Amino acid sequence: REWALSDTDISSERQSLMDGEGDSFTSRDGGSSNSMLAICDPTRLAHRFVVLLLMCFLGFGSYFCYDNPAALQTQIKQDMELNTSQFMQLYAWYSWPNVVLCFLGGFLLDRVFGIRLGTVIFSILVCVGQVIFAAGALFNAFWLMVFGRFVFGIGGESLAVAQNTYAVNWFKGRGLNLVFGLQLSMARLGSTVNMNVMGLVYHRIWDWRGSTGYSTLGVVLMIASATCVFSLACAVILGYLDKRAERLLNKEEGKTGEVIKLSDVKDFPPSLWLIFIICVGYYVAVFPFIGLGQVFFIEKFNFSPAEASAINSVVYIISAPASPILGFMVDKTGKNILWVVMAVVVTLASHMMLAFTFWNPWIAMSLLGVSYSLLACALWPMVAYVVPEHQLGTAYGFMQSIQNLGLALISMAAGGILDSRGYLFLEVFFCAFVCLALVAVVVLYFLNLIRGKGENWNVIILEPFNSHFLF
């Protein structure tokens, strides 16, 4: 669930959020911005701060509910009488629609719905999907839960595109990197709160009802849908403020800037395909592991459910503050391949510690959190160094599509392996994919070296077309 957008104006990005303070305009009705309250003036800091809050909370519900299955793994498997392979379908069916929608999401926002209506529609899909997911538990219908996750997936990833588009539309040249960092931090906060709260909510509902079972699970998931309704409200208010700003400032509605041409795929250089392999090999060893992590920590380390949920959320807890910091560090130092190598090696060490030792798992999970954040900051910008600007939309869309395809397939495979072989074999399975990513990044380094780039590792094959990103 990582997204990347570029800003071609590097120098303007270094300006602060205060750059627009004091700007004035004359609206279509003849009123001056100087006569408005600061919080009502689209050119003033106070108003943009309100917009920023709405943007940050726009994806909170989606990220909170995405890992509901991970936070309630034990309860879902017991109440719905599922094996692990069936349980992991809840993640696989989230990913399936995004194998295609990564290409269509930007097109729908630009050409069909528009950013404001599209954001509301995708937010509604997230809400409806979560409600269907909860209803499936209430009525003891697992197929309905799977269908709910499918609908939820249709809205979730496209909503992330809309969120980033709003950010570019409002903050390009006014601290855009900071805005992207805050959005990512809020997303990780949603995941963290989910991991640490949903188990407690389940036990409270259990105490209130006096029994467990699928109906209790359904009530808990329905409560979680309130976060999606909150994000929908933010989408509606944000759409109104954006429409109002368009009227007052005579500006155009925001565009994603994505140009998707499947015919460009045949022209992708070998370096880009290696980046795709790194992406898939790495992320399939992170997200499916977190989805299954709670029971792993309970069974291997004898943690309580609350302790297991807490440690399973460490990756997201660390990512929230670390992503902007590490992104700034990668921007300043360059040498993206070096940072990717480091992130992959540390992730491999983390999985090996969890698989073959009984060391305190807080160590391994903390390392995994740092390496996960580092890879996101270093890997995704590399695409802009290997393809021309007119192919960036296609390249990123294809990268997201194969990532979701890999997550869907590996999620189902991981569930089957865990049912038949256990956690040790599953960890070896994850280590194998991290090793695949490591081999790909080493080959990428030598390919870069052969092409004569030497130590200038942050320039791969081509000079950068868009040289500043934040993820």
Automatic annotation (TrEMBL):
InterPro entries: MFS, MFS_dom, MFS_trans_sf, MFSD1. The chain crosses the membrane at residues 45-64, 90-109, 121-144, 214-241, 272-298, 310-330, 337-356, 362-386, 398-418, 424-447. CDD domains: MFS_MFSD1. It is a multi-pass membrane protein. Residues 1-31 are annotated as: Disordered. Keywords: Lysosome, Membrane, Transmembrane, Transmembrane helix, Transport. It is found in: Lysosome membrane. It comes from the Eukaryota. Residues 48-451 form the Major facilitator superfamily (MFS) profile domain. Gene3D superfamilies: MFS general substrate transporter like domains. It catalyses: L-alpha-aminoacyl-L-histidine(out) = L-alpha-aminoacyl-L-histidine(in); L-alanyl-L-lysine(out) = L-alanyl-L-lysine(in); L-alpha-aminoacyl-L-arginine(out) = L-alpha-aminoacyl-L-arginine(in); L-arginyl-glycine(out) = L-arginyl-glycine(in). One of its GO terms (molecular function) is transmembrane transporter activity. The keyword Ribonucleoprotein does not apply. Its main location: membrane. The keyword Transmembrane applies. Lysosomal dipeptide uniporter that selectively exports lysine, arginine or histidine-containing dipeptides with a net positive charge from the lysosome lumen into the cytosol. Could play a role in a specific type of protein O-glycosylation indirectly regulating macrophages migration and tissue invasion. Also essential for liver homeostasis. Belongs to the major facilitator superfamily. This is Lysosomal dipeptide transporter MFSD1.
